[in-house]
Amino acid sequence: MVFNNTVVNLHYVNDPVWMERAFLLLKKHYQLVSVQQIDGYYHNNTPLRNSCHVTFDDGDDSFYRVVFPIIKKHQIPVSIYVSPKATIERDSFWFQKFKATDKEALKKVLLKDVKFAPVTSEIGGFPAIVLCKCMEIAKLNRVIDQCLEKNKNHSVVAKNMSIAQLLEVEDSGLVEIGAHTMNHPILSNESDADAEWEISSSITELSKLLGKTINYFAFPNGRYGLDFGDRELELISRNGIRLAFSTERKSFSKRDNPLLVPRKGLSHGRNAMILAKLILGKNWDSLKKVMQGRDETDLRIMLNKILAGTEK
Asked: Taking the mean position of all CA atoms in its chain, how far away is CA 199?
């Protein structure tokens, strides 16, 4: 069976048995290619058929501990998308700290924010994670840090790779490193100045750290029209990015904008489930909604509409 050209995306991986099994499954059904080959496909008309590239977002240290030994063993090219700030400062992203918070206490604080206060009665049933993803990153980080401090959980261990680890994986020749903003914000929540800083600084600082030009970028959260838009596409283009990755769940083709390369997310499951996700693409999301009802994206869209109504 021939599969459509696909980019697969992962984040945190803590099960080496599952990860190796998933890689071997991909290797069985696809030709595993590098991000440079994807670049050639879009910019140099290099033909690709039945090809798959594997990406990892965030730079979680599980990549170094779990994934890196496996890709070395099987000689699999991948790309990872990281924040130079998180690497240099050995800090955790807001969503990594979020896991250590008291969610109900955090939600109470969030609902008092001036952004949400006028519509508290309408959005009280929304989970804390949805409220978080509608906030500016500077304010969100302050609120989460305050909640952790109050609950004596402020010593959250850094979850991301160190400089030494990042340089080691880069030196292997199997791992291409791209930018992923500085603080992992939902870029559409940010001002023009802050969005530009998040993108431009992540590219320039990562370039300094690695001593090379940064050609590739992955958008945090990654849904065009919800998490980022044309403003961000202009910013990455201005910064010399050749390919940027979204999280639109479909196969890639020449019809795509090279700054909106789609990816299909994987995180768990047996081989049959992995293949189903790869084959069904967007239809997998539709199937989940039929079985489970509204998902986080649906709730975020609803919340954005409610908040937009308060600005009229």
From this structure: 14
CB 77 within 8 Å of CB 32? yes
CATH 3.40.50.300 applies to domain 6-91+159-280: no
**Residue 75: DSSP 8-state:** T
Residues 6+ apart with CB under 8 A from 156: 92, 96, 97, 100, 148
pLDDT of residue 156: 67
pLDDT for the residue numbered 274:
79
| Rounded Cα distance, 260 and 228, in Å | 11
Q: Are 210 and 167 in contact (CB under 8 A)?
A: yes
- 43-57, 129-143, 175-189, 289-303 — which is least confidently predicted? 289-303
- Report pLDDT digits (tens) over 178-231: 999 999 999 999 999 999 999 999 999 999 999 999 999 999 999 999 999 999
* Contact (CB, 8 A) for 161 and 67: no
pLDDT tens-place string over residues 251-267 = 999 999 999 999 999 87
Which ranges in the chain are annotated with CATH 3.20.20.370? Answer: 6-91+159-280
What span, in angstroms and rounded, lies between the C-alpha atoms of 137 and 298?
21
DSSP assignment string, 236-260: HHHTT-SEEE----S---TTS-TTS
Tokens describing residue 299? 């709730």
Q: Are 202 and 85 in contact (CB under 8 A)?
A: yes
